[in-house]
Amino acid sequence: MRTIAVLTDLSKNAEHATQFALHIAKKMKAKILLFQVSKEPVGRQLVLAGMPESYPDHEPSLAEYGNRMVRLATARTFADADVPEVSADPASTEIVDVMTTIMGMEEICLIVTAPGTAGDLAAYILSDECNRIIDWARVPVLLVPESTPLRYPEKIVFASQLHEEDINAVAELGSLMENFAAELMVAHLNTDPSDAGIRQKEDQLNRDLYKKLNCGGVYFRSIPDLGRKKSWDWLNANKRTELLAVMQQPREQMSKFFKRGQNESVTYHLTLPVMVLPKRP
Fold it and tell me: In this protein, which residues make up the domain named UspA (predicted)?
C-alpha cells in the first residue's frame, strides 16, 4: 500500500499540512507515516509569537500528535467514514536521518510538509531548509500553506520549462493524482512568443501530451509573459488553480521562477500548495 510521509514540527501550520495529507490520503488510498523534524520547540514558538513566556508542562510526543490528528480528521467526516491509517516514526528528528529513512522505504509515494512559520511560501521554497528536503527526496514533495482549503484539487497546473524530461514529470504527476479526476493544465510562461524555436518546443510538448500520455483531462497552454511586473494571476485564468507543480531545477532557475511575484511596488504571495517533482535521469 502506498504511504505518504508527513514531516511535522508539531506547529499549527504543520498541523494543517498533516490534516491536508490525511484528506488526500483517503482518495489516494494511502497510509500516513509521521516524522518529527527538529525546528523550534512548541514552547519556544509561543514565546516567538509574543505569548506569555511559559512552556507547556508536557511536550506532545509524535504518537500523541498523530492520535490528535486522527481525532480531528474523524470529526470532519461522516460517522462511518474511514480515516487513513496513521503511524509514527520517532527514531530521529534530524532532517538528514529522517530523509535517509524515507528514501529507504519503497512504499513512500509523496512527502508532505508545511512552510516555516515566517515568510512567504515562495521564499520558503528557496530556503536552505526546504532545499535540503527537496535535494534528498526521490519522490514528489508537497508544501502545504495554512491557507490551503481541505478539499480535493479540481485544477492542477504543471509549470513547464520545455525540458525533455517534462513529459515524464507530467506522467508521474498524473499517476500520483489520478484519483482526484482533476484537470491538469501544462503551462509554459513564454517570455518571447516571436521565437520560432520556443514555439517549436511548445508544439512538440503539446503533441507528446496527446501521443505519449494515456490519460484525459490534460491540456497545454502557452501563456504570454511579457509584462514588466510578474505575478501569479495566470494561475487562475478560466478556473482557479488549486495545486501548482514544478520539476526540480537548479537553484538559480527555481529562484527566477518563484521570485516572479516579488516586484518593487507589491509582492504577490503564493497561497496554494506547491509540489516539487524530482528530476529523473
Answer: 1-145
